[in-house]
Design a protein that fits this description.
Layout: E1 16-18, E2 24-27, H1 39-45, E3 58-60, E4 63-65, H2 80-88, E5 90-92, E6 103-105, H3 109-113, E7 120-122, E8 140-142, H4 146-153, E9 158-160, E10 167-169, H5 173-179, E11 184-186, E12 201-203, H6 207-214, E13 219-221, E14 232-234, H7 238-244, H8 246-304, E15 315-321, H9 323-329, E16 332-334, E17 338-340, E18 343-352, E19 358-366, E20 380-386, E21 396-401, H10 404-409, H11 411-414, E22 425-427, H12 433-436, E23 446-455
Antiparallel strand pairs: 1-2, 3-4, 5-6, 7-8, 9-10, 11-12, 13-14, 15-23, 16-18, 17-18, 18-19, 19-22, 20-21, 20-23
Protein name: TNF receptor-associated factor 4-like isoform X1
Subcellular location: Cytoplasm
GO molecular function: zinc ion binding
Length: about 450
């Protein structure tokens, strides 16, 4: 809105009258091209409260007032005749004193201000004033001067460094040039090229190399400094120095060589002593290692005399003796523990007289040394095979696997053991006791049960 636009001095009265309470009322009468001359015009076109040219005039307590001068909450309707008369009045641009010659009807004033070239606007790049009342605030200029300002004087405009071709803000150009690697600078020693009298110029980045390798006026050490010659001179004087002090340099280098020979001989003697010491130490360690190997060999021979449990095979061949008595006495029989991967298991067989004389075969999960590294609960597929001693191709076989329902129904059977062994899981109708005692399975009152277990992925 036009009433929110300010001029360069910070005033906010470009189009409307601003009252003491900070509100904007009627149009500024002083902008009219033809002043109101008659009392009738003043009565019909000027607000009785703010004395401004009426905007949306209405009748209030027998007075014509601006629509914005009516108290809040009071219903009003505009006076159509007044609106049309006011709208047709000719008005000058509020920035006439700045040079704008525009004049037109009242209603077109706001639209004109949006395009007026004399209207103060903020710098599009956001540069700030460095002095005056607006110091530290964004600079304001007439709209018509913005292109020139951005091109020639705005400190935030982008310039191209003529040396490195990088884009730099105008206000940062001087600091940039002070550190620009491509900026030409004189030799710090003010050396000159042969045949010239002007100090040598070079890119700032090349100065260190110039001083280290080329500058004839740079102070340098004698090449024989490490041998004891402590002379420093300008680089251009080095050839003369080397020629004049050649005999001294030779004597210094020979002295240094003899000292190094002595040092080398001493280091060689120390290295020889160290080698002899290490050889003796190695011989002693070899004897100790031989002794340890001998003891280890004896331990291995002792261990090899024992029959190890079938670890990590997932299979156990279990020979059960005294079968008849176990069936008659309804005894539990446990196998030796065995491993499936890192899981420790144990088989169990019982003669279940509560299930029509059928053998109950189950598998128990036992405590092991790797329980803290394993994934619980365990899932597996198991196969029970009762070997046929007469016809090996006709064994009695049963296969089953742990399902999700089993894990939910019997979680205590497959979780990590807290006691010696978990309760067993298997089949309660593997084979009848009568069939077990048949000659093809029972030989010399013994049967052989093969248990195979295959681990399944966790659910």
């Amino acid at each position: 809105m036009a009433e929110k636009i300010t001029d360069s001095e910070g005033r906010e009265d470009l189009v409307y009258i601003k009252t003491e309470d900070g509100s904007y009322r009627g149009w500024r009468v002083d902008l009219l091209v033809d002043n109101l001359s008659s009392k009738m015009e003043l009565k019909l076109l000027v607000c009785a409260l703010c004395n401004g040219l009426l905007r949306d005039a209405c009748l209030y307590e027998e007075e014509l007032r601006c629509g914005v001068c009516i108290p809040e909450g009071v219903a009003w309707q505009p006076v159509k005749m007044n609106r049309e008369i006011v709208s047709d009045k000719m008005i000058s641009c509020p920035l006439k004193k700045r040079g704008c010659e525009w004049s037109d009807t009242v209603t077109s004033a706001i639209h004109h201000l949006e395009e007026c070239e004399f209207l103060p606007v903020l710098c599009p790049l956001g540069c700030v004033c460095l002095e005056g009342e607006r110091r530290g605030k964004v600079m304001k200029l007439e709209k018509r001067r913005i292109p020139e300002h951005q091109r020639d004087s705005c400190p935030l405009r982008e310039l191209v460094c003529e040396f490195c071709l990088n884009k730099v803000k105008a206000c940062e150009m001087n600091p940039h040039l002070e550190g620009c690697e491509q900026f030409p600078v004189p030799c710090p020693n003010e050396c000159v090229r042969e045949g010239e009298e002007v100090t040598r110029q070079m890119k700032r980045r090349d100065v260190p190399v110039h001083l280290a390798d080329l500058c004839p006026l740079q102070k340098v050490e004698c090449p024989y400094w490490i041998y004891g010659c402590r002379e420093e001179m300008e680089r251009k004087e080095m050839d003369l120095h080397e020629r004049e002090f050649m005999h001294i340099h030779f004597r210094l280098s020979m002295t240094d060589m003899k000292q190094k020979q002595i040092q080398t001989s001493q280091e060689l003697d120390r290295a020889t002593e160290r080698i002899i010491f290490l050889e003796n130490e190695s011989e002693s360690k070899t004897k100790e290692l031989s002794k340890v190997n001998s003891e280890l060999k004896s331990i291995i021979e002792v261990l090899s005399s024992y029959t190890p449990l079938p670890l990590s095979t997932g299979q156990l061949e279990w020979k059960i003796k005294g079968v008849k008595q176990k069936i008659e006495n309804e005894e539990y029989t446990y196998s030796d523990p065995f491993y499936v991967g890192l899981y420790k298991c144990q088989g169990c067989i019982e003669c279940n007289w509560l299930n029509l004389g059928k053998a109950f075969v189950s598998i128990h999960i036992m405590k092991g040394g790797y329980d803290d590294k394993l994934h619980w609960p365990i899932r597996y597929k198991y196969t029970l095979i009762l070997l046929n001693h007469i016809n090996s191709n006709n064994n009695y076989e049963y296969t089953n696997q742990i399902t999700k329902e089993d894990l939910e129904s019997f979680p205590y059977k497959f979780k990590r053991p807290t006691q010696l062994r978990n309760r067993g899981y298997g089949t309660d109708s593997f084979i009848s006791n009568t069939e077990i005692l048949e000659a093809k399975y029972c030989k010399e009152d013994s049967i052989t049960l093969l248990i195979k277990i295959e681990l399944l992925p966790a659910l």
